[in-house]
Amino acid sequence: MNIKPLGDRIVIKVLEKEERTKGGIVLPDTAKEKPQKGEVLAVGSGEIIDGQKVPLEVKVGDKIIFSKYAGTEVKIDDEEYLILRQSDVLAIIQ
Amino acid sequence: MNIKPLGDRIVIKVLEKEERTKGGIVLPDTAKEKPQKGEVLAVGSGEIIDGQKVPLEVKVGDKIIFSKYAGTEVKIDDEEYLILRQSDVLAIIQ
Amino acid sequence: MNIKPLGDRIVIKVLEKEERTKGGIVLPDTAKEKPQKGEVLAVGSGEIIDGQKVPLEVKVGDKIIFSKYAGTEVKIDDEEYLILRQSDVLAIIQ
Amino acid sequence: MNIKPLGDRIVIKVLEKEERTKGGIVLPDTAKEKPQKGEVLAVGSGEIIDGQKVPLEVKVGDKIIFSKYAGTEVKIDDEEYLILRQSDVLAIIQ
Amino acid sequence: MNIKPLGDRIVIKVLEKEERTKGGIVLPDTAKEKPQKGEVLAVGSGEIIDGQKVPLEVKVGDKIIFSKYAGTEVKIDDEEYLILRQSDVLAIIQ
Amino acid sequence: MNIKPLGDRIVIKVLEKEERTKGGIVLPDTAKEKPQKGEVLAVGSGEIIDGQKVPLEVKVGDKIIFSKYAGTEVKIDDEEYLILRQSDVLAIIQ
Amino acid sequence: MNIKPLGDRIVIKVLEKEERTKGGIVLPDTAKEKPQKGEVLAVGSGEIIDGQKVPLEVKVGDKIIFSKYAGTEVKIDDEEYLILRQSDVLAIIQ
């Protein structure tokens, strides 16, 4: 992947599953709830805490749960990614 | 359990008891007060305080009282959990 | 007592005295001013200040004056308690 | 005095002087400006600054000028006191 | 002078000059701009920065420029003074 | 380049590409989305973290993604630049 | 110059150029954009960062770009100056 996030930031690909109502109707994009799961594609060099660089807990390849509405959407080569801070990551799914 | 919360976060299962009014009527979900008790299912690696990682006071299995409306609800494999920060935990019930 | 408050928190029992108007009428609950005195039932393990755990100044059994409206009310075994932070304690009555 | 304020707090007695308009009329209580002078009755154990307990600059018996509207009024044995933080004290009158 | 300001505070006397419009009319008090110059009458014991007491840069007798609307007006023995924090002092006029 | 940004600031040239709608119409300036990519032209001397100057992660020549609406536009010799803080830089495109 | 700014403050003279519209009309003062360039006339003794006085990066004589609307206007001997904090200085023009 050709983006290097800065500091305590990570780049993720949002994991979406096809959403169907009970009656089987595929919901158009705007009716779906904002997704909360993603896969980590790149991680920054670490967070500076009290003058020391601490590597991130999150690794490339982790599946994560993140805060709704967190982060900034970016489009690179027609692909959409989300850049989050590690503090927006709630948990890693194992 | 297959979620690993990050940093000073914990994953809890909210403890609900069936709620009846004095007249014996079971209240539907929306009329109940938001619950404040939970059981800890997973704890993060610790809180960073002045550059040092301090393990959490809360342990897996603890029954806790937490601030109303705190945390983020997540649904994993059709089960609902709550991800809190340790600072939202008021006390441990012994 | 079977609640262990976390960190710099304490559990108190609010001290209420029967309130009468000058004419001798006992005031119903909603007309009384919010109480400001309590007795400490349990104290947390201490406050972390600059990376060091400092034991609380408040001890179990102390009668305290606390900020109006501070803290969170909890009900355990049908008893009502108040969980405060030590910083909400204004003074100890000796 | 039987109140021990916590940390960087002090207990003062507000100094009021009888207020007369130029025409000699004694003003009722609500028309007077909120007082800004007080006498220190009790001081806390000190302020914690960068992990060290620093004794307060204000001593028992000092006459002080304090910020209008600062502090919390408390009534103990039918006497009214004011609990302030040392940071609400502007100056000591010598 | 008989006021000792606390910490990083100073006591100043506001320097006002008679203000005339171009046509020579002396403006009444409410039409004048709030003054921004003062003379320092007393200084506090210093500012605590990272646990160390640092003496103030401003000295008694300095003429200073201060932020409009900063500080608290106090009246002592019918004289009006202004108590400022050193951080409200913009510059010293030499 | 003849601007030296201060501290943790950087000077960038915003990278714009000609924007066409699907029907081939060139959009006038106000209809385009605010750009998010830029090239770094100058970097400050570093960020002060806990009393130590830490050189910036971003280097002259880097292509970066930055937060929408971040920074201050400046015009020097009829050229428009953007001055950002490094914290507004989300990622470096490699 | 006879003003000594305090701490991390600087005194600048705003650099204005005569502004003409394309049609050659000289714009009156209120129609001009607020200027963003200035020359440094005096600098403070330095910024205190983590307990140590760090000299300012900006020197007397520097031409600077500063944040629009930053600082406080002062008038000394009928000359108008602007007192800024160094953090309001975006860059030095070389």
TrEMBL record, chains A, B, C, D, E, F, G:
<dbReference type="GO" id="GO:0044183">
    <property type="term" value="F:protein folding chaperone"/>
</dbReference>
<keyword id="KW-0963">Cytoplasm</keyword>
<comment type="similarity">
    <text>Belongs to the GroES chaperonin family.</text>
</comment>
<comment type="function">
    <text>Together with the chaperonin GroEL, plays an essential role in assisting protein folding. The GroEL-GroES system forms a nano-cage that allows encapsulation of the non-native substrate proteins and provides a physical environment optimized to promote and accelerate protein folding. GroES binds to the apical surface of the GroEL ring, thereby capping the opening of the GroEL channel.</text>
</comment>
<dbReference type="GO" id="GO:0005737">
    <property type="term" value="C:cytoplasm"/>
</dbReference>
<dbReference type="GO" id="GO:0051082">
    <property type="term" value="F:unfolded protein binding"/>
</dbReference>
<dbReference type="InterPro" id="IPR037124">
    <property type="entry name" value="Chaperonin_GroES_sf"/>
</dbReference>
<keyword id="KW-0143">Chaperone</keyword>
<dbReference type="InterPro" id="IPR018369">
    <property type="entry name" value="Chaprnonin_Cpn10_CS"/>
</dbReference>
<dbReference type="InterPro" id="IPR020818">
    <property type="entry name" value="Chaperonin_GroES"/>
</dbReference>
<dbReference type="GO" id="GO:0005524">
    <property type="term" value="F:ATP binding"/>
</dbReference>
<dbReference type="GO" id="GO:0051087">
    <property type="term" value="F:protein-folding chaperone binding"/>
</dbReference>
<dbReference type="InterPro" id="IPR011032">
    <property type="entry name" value="GroES-like_sf"/>
</dbReference>
<dbReference type="Pfam" id="PF00166">
    <property type="entry name" value="Cpn10"/>
</dbReference>
<protein>
    <recommendedName>
        <fullName>Co-chaperonin GroES</fullName>
    </recommendedName>
</protein>
<comment type="subunit">
    <text>Heptamer of 7 subunits arranged in a ring. Interacts with the chaperonin GroEL.</text>
</comment>
<dbReference type="GO" id="GO:0046872">
    <property type="term" value="F:metal ion binding"/>
</dbReference>
